[in-house]
Amino acid sequence: MKVTLLGSGTSTGVPRLGGEEGIDWGLCDPAEPRNRRSRVSIVVENERGSRLLVDTSPDLRSQLLNCNITRVDAVFWTHDHADHCHGIDDLRPLRYGRGGPIPAYAASETARRLRQRFGYVFAGQFGYPTIASLDDLQNLRICEGFGVSNCQMTHGPAQSTAYRFDCDGKSVGYATDFSEITRSMVDLFVGCDILVVDCLRREPHPTHAHLGMALELADAARVRRAVLTHLDKSMDYATLSDEVPGHVLVGYDGMVLNA
């Protein structure tokens, strides 16, 4: 299996708009290309060429172009916050040439909110066809040759869905936007070849994992490799890379890993 990090940044991306000069790099070195971060999303691919997209970030179009991804076979959402779903319209060109809408999945509450906000995507409008079908994760076990399992995570006052994708004896886990570690999360990710994990900053945060929590989850689940994502402007790539253990990688936009 292969996982591509389309984006690796927090909700405002890096650099952030604002600051004294109008562009705020925080502690990140602007000369390091891996510090330029768009909003988080991943693609998981198996040896048969099947591709699953997780989340539709507001930067989705440029991410797919940058990574030369012109087709996905299914879409999964972690939750409905803007930085994870507001690029949903960029699925429209991926619908062209298909015999039907792109299969899509989310937990029941996330699905309800997505239908409420983006009804035209899932039902068509004004003669335009349905872009994606949206089904509840409850009964999903296999998708495009992948085994798919999930659990719900606490994301401050909200919830986010954690995913594990298995294929041909390899596994990729995805845990973004969580603020505490639960037994169900550890059980879901135990033994994963790759875990892409939320790591907003070094200090604790009310709705996101910080560095210590991200490393704790990776250790508890005994994953082979962990990749830090959802990084803010305090997380300089080179500095952070020097801090983490050898089996932990600092994620960046366009990063490709083989399980």
What does this molecule look like?
The protein has 259 residues and is α/β, with parallel strands linked by helices. The protein is 21% helix and 29% strand. It has helices at residues 60-66, 82-85, 92-95, 108-117, 119-123, 183-189, 211-220, 237-243; strands at residues 2-7, 16-17, 23-24, 41-45, 51-54, 74-76, 102-106, 132-136, 142-143, 146-155, 158-167, 170-175, 194-198, 225-229, 248-250, 256-258. The strands form 3 sheets. Strands 8-7-6-5-4-1-16 form a 7-stranded mixed sheet. Strands 9-10-11-12-13-14-15 form a 7-stranded mixed sheet. The protein has a two-stranded antiparallel ribbon with strand order 2-3. The protein starts with a strand and ends with a strand. 48% of the residues are buried. The model has no long low-confidence stretch (mean pLDDT 96).
Please outline what is shown here.
The chain is an alpha/beta fold and 259 residues long.
Strands in their spatial order, largest beta sheet: 8-7-6-5-4-1-16
Low-confidence parts, pLDDT < 50 over ≥5 residues? none
Shape: globular
Q: Count the strands? A: 16
Q: What is the CA-based Rg, rounded?
A: 17 Å
Estimated structural class: alpha/beta
Task: Please describe the biggest sheet, giving its number of strands, its sense, and whether it closes into a barrel.
Answer: 7 strands, mixed
DSSP summary: helix tally: 8
Q: N- to C-terminal separation? A: 5 Å
Mean pLDDT level? 96
Chain oligomer state: single chain
Helix content: 10-25%
Q: Beta fraction of the residues?
A: 25-35%
The arrangement of helices and strands along the chain is EEEEEHEHHEHHEEEEEHEHEHEE
